[in-house]
Each structure stands twice: as C-alpha cells, then as structure tokens.
Amino acid sequence: MLAEVLIFVPSIARFRADYLLLRLEKAQIASLALLAAEDATVGEDLEAELLKNAEVFNVVLRRDEVRQLVLSSPIPAPIHDTFDLRMAGPWELIRDAGGVLLDPENRVIRVIGNPVQDAGLLIEITMQTGPLRVAMVEYGLRILFLSALISVVTALLLFLAVQRLLVVPIRRVVRHMTAYAEAPEDARRVIAPSAEVEELRVAEEALASMQTQLTGALRQKERLAQLGGAVAKISHDLRNILTTAQLFADRLEASADPAVARAAPKLVGSISRAVSLCESTLAFGKAEEAPPQLKRFALRVLAEDVIEGEGLMAEAGPVACLIDIPAGLMIRADSEQLYRVLSNLVRNARQAIEATGQGGTIELSGGEDEQDWWIRVGDTGPGLPPRAKEHLFEAFQGGARKGGTGLGLAIAAELVRGHGGRLDLARSDAEGTEFLIRLPKRLAGEEVA
C-alpha cells in the first residue's frame, strides 16, 4: 500500500500539471494563429473553433507589458479558483490534484503559465475542471493497474525468495526432525547442514550436534540397561562356574587320585568359559558404534571376503557356501559394519551345521527393488529353538548356541538399524534358518525425485 501511494500521488499530480500545460500551449498556438491574420481579427466561427480545439473559454496574452484578450467566448459560470503554474512546487501540485479528484463539480478555473519559446510574459486561460477530472480518473486507474501489477510481481518474487531461502529449508528441518523422532537410534537420520541462510545453517548445525549426542546417549543408555538386567544372571552363572572350578581345584590340591589328570581339562574349560563370558559382557557395555560411513561398493566382493574370512572358500569340507549375488550389484553402506553383520550371521550358520555332526550348506544371496537393497543369509542347519526365537535380538537372551552370550545378533541388528534398515528372521524350521537384511536406498529426509 505504501508503494501504491508513493507511485500514484506524484504521478497524478504530474499528469494534472502536464494536462494544464498542454492547454496553455494549444491556447498559445490558437492566439498566434489569430495574431498572424492581416487585421488580427477572425470570424466568430473560426474563433469558436480555435477555442474548442484548445478546450478553453478565453485566452489572454501579456506581451510588452500589455495585457491583451486574444480569444474570448462566454463563460458558463464564475471563476472558482486561479492556478499559477509558474511558481508551483511539488506539494502545491499534489494538493491541487487532490482537490480536483475530490471535487465532483464541473467548475471554471483560471490557469496562468509561461508562454512557449518566450512568446510573451505570460499566458492566461479559463477552462472547466470536468474534462480534467475525467482525464485524471482514467489516468489514475491506469496507474493503479500498473502499480498493482508491479506490486503483484514484487510479491511473487518475494514469495519465491522466501520459499527458496526460508520455507524449503525449514520444511527440510521439520522433515528431518520427524524422521529422527521415529527412530532416534538411526544415525543416518541425523541432519546434514546445507541451508544457505546463515541463521538457518547455524540452527541445522546445532540440531545435528544435538541429534548426534542424543543418538549416542540412547545407544549407551540402552546398552547399560541391558547390561544392568544381565548382571544378576551373569553373577549367578559365574558363581556356578567358579564353584565348579573351585571343587576341581580343591581336588587337585588335596588328592593324588589318577582322576586328577582328567579333572584338569574340565577346570581349564570352566575357567575359560567364565573369562569369555566376562569379556563379552564388558565389551558390550563399553562399545560405542560410530555412525556408518556410507559408500558405494560391490556387494559380491564383500560377501566373498566374509566367506574367505570364515574359512569356507575351500570346496572340500562339511560346510559348503554358495554366493548368489550379481557381480554388478552396487549398494551404499558402511562396508566394515556390514562385514561384521554378515560375518556374524555366517559364523552362526556354520556353527549350527557343525553342531549336527553332518554336512550342510550356507547361501548368501542379494538383490534390490525400488525401495531397498536386500541380503539373505540362509543355511540348512537344524533351525533355532523356540526360546531363541522369542528373544533373538536381545542381548544375553538370544543365544542359540550352548555357551554363547547372545551378543552377536544384538550387535548385528543394531548395526543394521544404524543404516536405517532392518534385520529380520525370515524363517527357521527343520529345513534351516534364513535371515533377511533390508537397507533403504533413500536417505532419511531425502525427497523422491
């Protein structure tokens, strides 16, 4: 509205001044045409035509200090006001223009100005304000339309600028916050600062720092809670193991029985199991997994490295391994963390098959769909016991192997969640066990193209 006022008011005042100057110029031309005649007189018809063309009632010229009525006609009403354009300033022009617009009456006014080309000292005309007001209204409407169009274009540009610099980054922050709230443990949902506006970028950096700290705190809290829940069980199991070791130790010290030779390995085994359990517990309680470093790599090459690391590349052996992954399949993940996940699953499958005393097969397959990359790890082992299925990914409770702590699958599931994916048990029956890993293609907060 301020722009409308700043554009409209000076423009309408300037239009009125130009309109009056044009009438003065036409009146001067008509006067010069009369003065050029031989006797400086014309007929009434020609005089009326000259006045009509100039849109005035009479014309007065002052030349050589002599005021001369050059053209004249009857005036329909008394003169209402006089306007001298020779000394009028901007504020006077604006005031007089406003007076014309606000007065709907068709009044007679006197206008004084300087003749063109110094053809005298002054020129004076009388005219009506009705045609002037009509012309000013038409011009004002055009100016209002033009200024409104300029305002609309300006508003559109401002809207686009606000959308680009503020609304879109704010929506992105809100989208990241919503996605992060759904899965705070997913390190891939931590916002990556990218705003162009400095204040928003500072806010994004602060949010990213807070999310990173919160994710780490949640993981540590979860692990400490699991560790605290397992302390009682560990203490009980450890006490039983050490009690057995103590009995064998007492027998070694107090007896020369030949059975001591057979008791010594049992003592060593009991102590070893106690040490292994303690080490696994301490390692789980102190572990702090770093956020995944996402890079593209060939999944088949990683699978071959896992199989080789587990000693299953040799064709001869009780456990065979098959890889059904396209050579050109590229995924985006942290190769080190995914190696640990696959290694744990393959190792569990191998141990399950070996425990049966018979041969078996482990199969690694992979592929992709529109949303995710998927990896299947299956075996022909005996399947999982019911209790292991109920607490499969819970630390200290999901162990399916005798002597195991149940930490492997819990850590593997956590690493997959850190990628924004899921580790699920697809099936487990008498024909074998199969795990399914799904890793999303789209990062949290990204818009689908």
From TrEMBL:
<keyword id="KW-0902">Two-component regulatory system</keyword>
<dbReference type="InterPro" id="IPR050736">
    <property type="entry name" value="Sensor_HK_Regulatory"/>
</dbReference>
<dbReference type="InterPro" id="IPR005467">
    <property type="entry name" value="His_kinase_dom"/>
</dbReference>
<dbReference type="Pfam" id="PF00512">
    <property type="entry name" value="HisKA"/>
</dbReference>
<dbReference type="InterPro" id="IPR004358">
    <property type="entry name" value="Sig_transdc_His_kin-like_C"/>
</dbReference>
<feature type="domain" description="Histidine kinase">
    <location>
        <begin position="233"/>
        <end position="443"/>
    </location>
</feature>
<dbReference type="InterPro" id="IPR003594">
    <property type="entry name" value="HATPase_dom"/>
</dbReference>
<dbReference type="InterPro" id="IPR036890">
    <property type="entry name" value="HATPase_C_sf"/>
</dbReference>
<dbReference type="InterPro" id="IPR003661">
    <property type="entry name" value="HisK_dim/P_dom"/>
</dbReference>
<keyword id="KW-1133">Transmembrane helix</keyword>
<keyword id="KW-0418">Kinase</keyword>
<protein>
    <recommendedName>
        <fullName>histidine kinase</fullName>
        <ecNumber>2.7.13.3</ecNumber>
    </recommendedName>
</protein>
<keyword id="KW-0597">Phosphoprotein</keyword>
<dbReference type="Pfam" id="PF02518">
    <property type="entry name" value="HATPase_c"/>
</dbReference>
<keyword id="KW-0808">Transferase</keyword>
<keyword id="KW-0472">Membrane</keyword>
<feature type="transmembrane region" description="Helical">
    <location>
        <begin position="143"/>
        <end position="162"/>
    </location>
</feature>
<dbReference type="InterPro" id="IPR036097">
    <property type="entry name" value="HisK_dim/P_sf"/>
</dbReference>
<keyword id="KW-0812">Transmembrane</keyword>
<dbReference type="GO" id="GO:0000155">
    <property type="term" value="F:phosphorelay sensor kinase activity"/>
</dbReference>
